[in-house]
Amino acid sequence: MPERQQRAADLLRHAGVLPVITVNTLDEARALADALLEGGLSTLELTLRTPIAIDALAMLKRERPGIVIGAGTVLDANNIRASIDAGADFLVTPGTPPGLADALAAADIPVVPGAATPTEFMSLRERGFRNCKLFPASAVGGLAMLKGLAGPLHDMRFCPTGGISEANAAEFLSQPNVLCIGGSWMLDKAWIEAGDYARVRETAARAAAIVREARAQR
Ligand SMILES: O=C[C@H](O)COP(=O)(O)O
Ligand SMILES: CC(=O)C(=O)O
Q: pTM of the entire structure?
């Protein structure tokens, strides 16, 4: 577990921003991944919310080996198995009930289990997890929640996701217990429907710049 924990921490810290993408076709997956990569975001979370998701994950790992891809919306052991078989580099969950936590602890891959309350984070900590997702971050207190967790859970690090935008990204990244922020603000549904991938690329580039600036100020 500690080595996998270190790998999870390293890849989140390296990413800084984790775009959360949901795709409906393989072409859309290619176009979005390319736009994010061109914008400077080479790590992404691809959610298992659509029927094509596992095929898209496998295709991207084959065709875009330079992109680090986490499977998101991992809800059960079947999702874990399918994601690993498709080549996922890591796994992300929106929440982590005990059975899923056990299955994640047994999976030989970096994982970022999600939770929303101190008690849930403490349950994950008991199983050895130290790098977790705070979801849905803004709805459960956002920055105030992260500051509150920093004292008692001082050895835990977080990837807040949910409600983060270009406007508040820097503030989240400036929290010492934040390794990375997740979100879909660079993947606006209307831009995707319009095929406006340039807008995705530009917003991704601004997100990458926010990470660089936040790092320079730490
Ligand atoms: O389901 C939502 C994603 O996890 C990211 O949240 P967001 O769309 O508020 O950035
Ligand atoms: C909430 C999220 O990003 C997930 O579905 O894993």
A: 0.96
DSSP helix/strand/coil, 68:
strand
Find out whether the beta carbon of 72 lies less than 6 Å from any atom of ligand 2.
Answer: yes
Distance, C-alpha 60 to centroid of its chain: 17
Give bridge partners of residue 72 from the DSSP assignment: 47
pLDDT in tens, 108-142: 999 999 999 999 999 999 999 999 999 999 999 99
**Distance between CA 214 and CA 70 in Å, rounded?**
23
Other C-beta atoms closer than 10 Å to the C-beta of 217 total: 9
Q: Specify the CATH class of 2-210 in words.
A: alpha beta
* 3-class secondary structure per residue, 132-186: EEECCCCCCCHHHHHHHHHCCCCCCEEEEECCCCCCCHHHHHCCCCECCEEECCC
For ligand 1, the distance from its centroid to the CA atom of residue 162, given in whole angstroms, is 4
| Residues 104, 122 contacting (CB under 8 angstroms) | no
Q: 94 CB less than 6 Å from ligand 2? A: yes
Q: Which residues are catalytic?
A: 45, 133
